[in-house]
Fold this protein.
Amino acid sequence: MTENRKPFRKAIMADHQRARIEFDPRFTVADVPERLFGSFVEHLGRCVYTGIYEPDHASANEDGLRQDVLDLIRELGPTMIRYPGGNFVSGYRWEDGVGPKEDRPRRLDLAWGVTETNQFGLGEFMKFCRTVGVEPNMAVNLGTRGLQEALDLLEYANHPGGTYWSDLRRSHGDEEPYGIKLWCLGNEMDGPWQIGQRTATEYGRIADQVARSMRMIDDKLDLVACGSSSRGMPQFGAWEAEVLTQSYESVDYISAHAYYQPEGGDFASFMASAQDMELFIDGVIATADAVGAKLKSDKKINISFDEWNVWYQHAWHEAEHAKWVEAPRQLEDVYSAMDAVVFGSLLITLLRRCDRVTAACLAQLVNVIAPIMTEPGGPAWRQTTFFPFAEASKFGRGKVLRVNADAPAFHTERFGDVAALHSVAVANEDGSITVFAVNRNLEHPLTLEIDAASLPTFSDLTCSTLTDEDPNAKNTLENPTRVAPKANEDITVKDGVIAIELPAMSWNTIRIA
Ligand code: AHR
């Protein structure tokens, strides 16, 4: 805290703007679900091979997991990891990835046009989850496969022993069942790119059958039905309605996937990407609740936002890709400071809506549109997006509070006027309060005033800010620490109001302890 107001970048004082928020720790939206800070490991590019798993790496442990990457994952703080896809799962035979490694087949992976060696599979994934301390979230293949293979996989994973599949697991060295609770019933099954694409009626029916049968083996499962692949799909809404009409009583979640990138140089709309995520959540909840109402059900279906991120998809679609190579560099987006701020804003939305978004996965974890990058045989480092996730996972635990906000407008082509300030407040379990705040404005700083009148006395007030003079600044192999959050000392407290200077285009974590 200081009276010395030294701005991060040159403030355009003539256009200086103010926003004000107020909240009361007694008025809450919901408890932050443990599964909100999930991530995703797909057999795609170098996420698995030379990402988390590289037996020849100098830092590899006895399971072939890179210790340098494990350390960064722990610092990032994911709570749950989805596996093994993604599009990959729709052509995957899970049996290929278990048992002695020398016997595992090499296969064509049609989803990504590469060769899969199967040197990493379910057993290795479970070791990884145990080592990091995260909940596994396993997807079954409903593209090239169906009910029987899903049941075989569940029996292998969760049945204690005395049957063919469970004893096979034990013979592979895993005496204890894995106890995987959270399962995705396929992936993006409405996508024309998906191996085994289905209609909503076909998919809803198979999802219902698989869900009901899986529960016969294990009645403690949480099951995710596929929603549309994105809000932009022509069948969005109608798909959710039909799938849930078929499967409402047998599943727990409907999935949502969203990726954002600047379109045609429209960076203002990009900064407001979370508006689209909000509308997406509204649409899925309205549809799910309408189905529930029609069925006269007491049950609520929540959202598993199991793929979300910034992803420069145009670059991927425009590039040439070598075919059938092993673990090539695919989807290795290098994120800028601006990307990190947009990313943080998406996290704010997930927190704000965590009464109904009760699971979410940052897609993905390492190398593939990821917060952590590695070089084969070389170092690992943090992308710009690493920091908002790590701070949200560390300080965004407890109860989300109702926030009243008054903020200046920020104009965008795509969404019209939106609030320049995007924020959420969380009452942490230790009695402190954390406010996450994004200033979406690309040019103007914002003075954020927090009405402290309803807060208990506080003795410690800090703000960590991620921004950069250059919105395109990135962390790279050559310069891995170019962008990182810094302590923002531009805070004052006067007459029960906390005032913090939020630089233009910034992600801010304010801790009131
Ligand atoms: O995360 C990358 C890909 O995006 C996933 O495989 C797929 O589910 C989505 O289209």
Q: What stands out?
A: The chain has two domains: 2-29+401-512, 33-395. The radius of gyration is 23 Å.
